């Protein structure tokens, strides 16, 4: 590592350490200020501060450990500042919640947002710490309130784990809110020693809709900041007028058309399998982009990816695809390989005889059988049923292959 890189790394580490220390002491300060706000005894405040700092220390350790072991979800390891900001806002809310009835605390949304911007374990611990702080200053609250919201929060975290580009959240939102409403009804309505009436459900209903609103806002921001943050970049990369594709077209027309046709098949297969269409289409366009720098080596592809700021998932796909051992794990790499192979074989046959009439069912059977028997798909996540669906998609494109003549 060069001196400049060492210096930059040292500055980043120093900045991160200062951020950890800052948030650690902020938790203690806010907890102590809350004790003053609620008029608690000195020793009780000291106890609360010590417990909150122990909890925060655990969270900071988990963040560091999970970040180094690549256990944080999405790109959260590179953007821990988002988690700290969200945690601090939630902390301020936590010390205010004792002013409202326990049945109205929107902890479902808090548990969910903390886990989305870290991972399930960190989100669960952070949510539990905030819930503990609220309970320490709430009058008439106890262990039952903790378990109600802890179980609801845990359910929310489980339901919102591993969101992907399809962003199917409707069922997750419904089930998490249903869990919340059932828990609130059981915990705060059934045991009320009053005549049963609709008014008893007023606060749980308000809590329900407040969490619904917060979850919608959280998911909107999460989609923009994490899940689909590279969407516009993919739109640029998949535009045939993008400068990189124009350069490929000017340098090697054959490689350009091969890329276009491969991208088309990738797109069709992705739609059938419910995979990331824009990722696979970009993979089709750029799986041989290394030819712009000479040979299509991974080193050349990597140089191009850095120059044109390819999204991380596209870089991972291209790296896997151009691995020297040619053993594929992800479904996307398998789709790209099969698409590339089909286009290559059809192009080769048309170069030999532009007027040849191809028997596509036999051709596809031969291509797919050869790939399966070669062992390159043995470690793949793809199933034989999905491979059959890909073959069916490719067979339905008989008319398209005429563009390759």
Describe the structure.
With about 400 residues, this protein is mainly alpha-helical. It has helices spanning about 5-35, 40-70, 80-95, 105-115, 120-135, 145-160, 170-190, 200-225, 230-235, 245-250, 255-275, 275-285, 300-305, 310-320, 330-350, 360-375, 385-395. Helix 15 crosses helix 16. The two termini are about 50 Å apart.
Terminal CA distance: 50 Å
Number of helices: 17
Shape summary: elongated
Describe the largest sheet.
Answer: none
Bin the strand percentage.
under 5%
Structural class: mainly alpha
Poorly predicted parts: 1-10
Kindly summarize this structure in a few lines.
The protein is mostly helical and 405 residues long. It has helices spanning 3-37, 42-68, 80-96, 107-116, 120-137, 143-159, 170-188, 202-227, 231-237, 243-251, 253-273, 277-286, 298-307, 312-321, 331-352, 360-374, 384-395. It is built from 17 helices and no strands.
Helix/strand layout:
Layout: H1 3-37, H2 42-68, H3 80-96, H4 107-116, H5 120-137, H6 143-159, H7 170-188, H8 202-227, H9 231-237, H10 243-251, H11 253-273, H12 277-286, H13 298-307, H14 312-321, H15 331-352, H16 360-374, H17 384-395
Keywords:
disordered N terminus; elongated; mainly alpha; 17 helices; 0% strand; 405 residues
